[in-house]
Task: inverse folding
């Protein structure tokens, strides 16, 4: 169990988002199971066959092992999560809605980066990003609640350096993981500035659309379907559904909340482009709105200013007048990486050390011709939301392929050892907690001996 846990902790992370997206994609491509069924139930919380199969497929896609024993282990983990969830209700452990929404946005941004754009996600799953978020939200909230319950149980667990060494030394030599090349890579992004003439042209187009609605009586939703540059809401008549305060960018929210139901805003500018907004309804802290978004033609902007800016910034970094990390935090237009000093972060481990094979292909090809420590001259770049930009890429460190060892992989081994210790605490907790809840497993999975294996 320990060796399997170690390998799982270091290499394979199955996230609820990955599993749910895998299931959605399979169904979008006509690969869904014909009939879903309940395979386990903990109080009112159920584990569906589709949930088990999606998690299993996700593990296989991450290079994990296959077989019935693996499915049993995954089902065991899903059942433990449902017990955590049931006990969280009993013990009044609650995850704030804002935290769930924030984490959902963060994970969807990561998947946008993986796919290349929101449009590609929507093409892959046959649904808008907003529809996917609605479907995934409950699963994510359950996952976060179970995690918070687990954190409560293990919050006082600590581990010493000697325990880490003992853990590592207990692993059979033929079971020590082999890590491929790891790198730390970052970038500083500067988006091109849209000219005043382009902004004026965009405003004029939106004002014309607004006039057609307000004066001409044309249908807002029909015009949104034709003219809006927001792929998520445009096809749905610009409808965004109910949003809580703080969910939208400040400029959008401020304009929407000044409106009366049915009223249409003047043209407003945000980081996404230019909008007109119609308020549909308000209830307490939530409001329902639709919008038409038009973006200036970012493909036609002049990149010279952005290139010169980054050239100057690169010179300052090379002359040691400012560090790359500080420059990224202060000047990069990429909010996803600026907080980490410009470095890309693995979303599963939250580490800046990333397996080279998991890098964006363009970044991988860029550093393939670089020396460690070098910074590229400005390179043309297209941001995730379609803006033209320039960036400089920094190749900070490289760790060659190797078998895990205490010198190079201390943090990974520390995390795995701490994880195993917490796992034992969770198992001990489970033995007591299972008496407080009802656990029913489908007869087909009796062979897994789930409850017995947790003793």
Result:
């Amino acid at each position: 169990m320990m060796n399997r846990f170690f390998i799982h902790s270091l290499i394979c992370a199955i996230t609820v988002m990955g599993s749910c997206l895998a299931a959605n994609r399979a169904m979008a491509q006509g690969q869904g199971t014909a009939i879903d069924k309940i395979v386990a139930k903990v109080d009112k919380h159920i584990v569906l066959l589709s949930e088990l199969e999606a998690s299993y497929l996700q593990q296989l896609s991450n290079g994990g092992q296959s077989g019935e024993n693996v499915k049993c282990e995954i089902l065991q983990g899903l059942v433990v999560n449902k017990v955590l969830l049931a006990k969280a209700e009993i013990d009044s452990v609650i995850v704030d809605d804002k935290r769930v929404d924030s984490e959902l946005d963060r994970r969807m941004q990561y998947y946008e980066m993986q796919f290349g754009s929101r449009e590609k996600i929507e093409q892959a799953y046959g649904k808008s990003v907003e529809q996917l978020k609605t479907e995934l939200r409950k699963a994510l909230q359950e996952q976060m609640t179970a995690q918070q319950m687990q954190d409560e149980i293990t919050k006082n667990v600590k581990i010493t350096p000697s325990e880490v060494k003992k853990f590592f030394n207990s692993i059979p030599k033929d079971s020590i993981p082999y890590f491929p090349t790891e790198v730390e890579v970052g970038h500083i992004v500067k988006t091109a500035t849209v000219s005043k003439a382009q902004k004026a042209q965009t405003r004029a187009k939106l004002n014309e659309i607004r006039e057609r609605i307000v004066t001409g009586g044309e249908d807002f939703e029909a015009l949104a379907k034709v003219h809006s540059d927001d792929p998520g809401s445009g096809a749905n008549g610009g409808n965004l559904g109910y949003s809580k305060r703080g969910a939208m960018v400040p400029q959008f929210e401020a304009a929407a909340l000044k409106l009366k139901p049915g009223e249409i805003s003047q043209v407003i500018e945000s980081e996404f482009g230019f909008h007109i907004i119609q308020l549909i309804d308000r209830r307490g802290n939530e409001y329902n709105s639709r919008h038409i978004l038009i973006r200036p033609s970012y493909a036609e902007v002049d990149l010279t200013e952005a290139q010169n800016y980054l050239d100057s910034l690169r010179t300052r970094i090379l002359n040691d007048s400012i560090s790359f990390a500080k420059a990224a935090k202060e000047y990069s237009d990429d909010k996803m990486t600026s907080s980490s000093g410009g470095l890309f972060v693995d979303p599963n481990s939250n580490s800046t050390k990333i397996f080279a094979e998991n890098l964006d292909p363009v970044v991988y090809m860029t550093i393939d011709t670089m020396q460690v420590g070098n910074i590229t001259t400005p390179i043309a770049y297209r941001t995730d939301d379609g803006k033209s930009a320039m960036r400089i890429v920094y190749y900070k460190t490289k760790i060659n392929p190797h078998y895990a060892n205490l010198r190079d992989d201390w943090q990974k081994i520390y995390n795995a050892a701490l994880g195993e210790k917490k796992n034992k605490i969770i198992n001990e907790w489970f033995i007591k907690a299972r008496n407080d809840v009802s656990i029913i497993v489908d007869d087909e999975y009796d062979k897994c001996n789930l409850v017995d294996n947790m003793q």
In short: Confidence is low (pLDDT under 50) at residues 1-16. The longest strand covers residues 388-399. The CA atoms of residues 42 and 439 lie 5 Å apart.
